[in-house]
UniProtKB/TrEMBL annotation:
Domain DUF8123 span(s) in chain numbering: 1-67
InterPro entries in alphabetical order: DUF8123
Protein name per its UniProtKB record: DUF8123 domain-containing protein
One Pfam entry name: DUF8123
TM segment ranges: 12-32, 44-66
Keyword list, A-Z: Membrane, Transmembrane, Transmembrane helix
Length: 69
């Protein structure tokens, strides 16, 4: 079985798994409920927004690189 990797760009090979990894880290952060350890509401909101932002950024990176030529 021959696998032709010459047609793949290095950015595609690295960016898609990186985007998926960043999204999974954001989901793991949300699953760990870090806001339960904060006494400040502002800090808890910041942690939630950061985790959701990581998910959005990771999925956007993977989608953008995967769908562009």
């Amino acid at each position: 079985m021959n696998l032709d990797l010459d047609s793949l760009d290095t950015l595609d090979v690295l960016a898609v798994p990186t985007g998926i990894f960043v999204a999974l880290v954001g989901l793991a952060t949300l699953a760990g409920t870090p806001w339960t350890y904060e006494t400040s509401t502002v800090a808890a909101i910041g942690q939630i927004l950061g985790a959701v932002g990581a998910v959005v950024l990771g999925l956007a990176l993977a989608w953008f690189v995967f769908t562009t030529e």
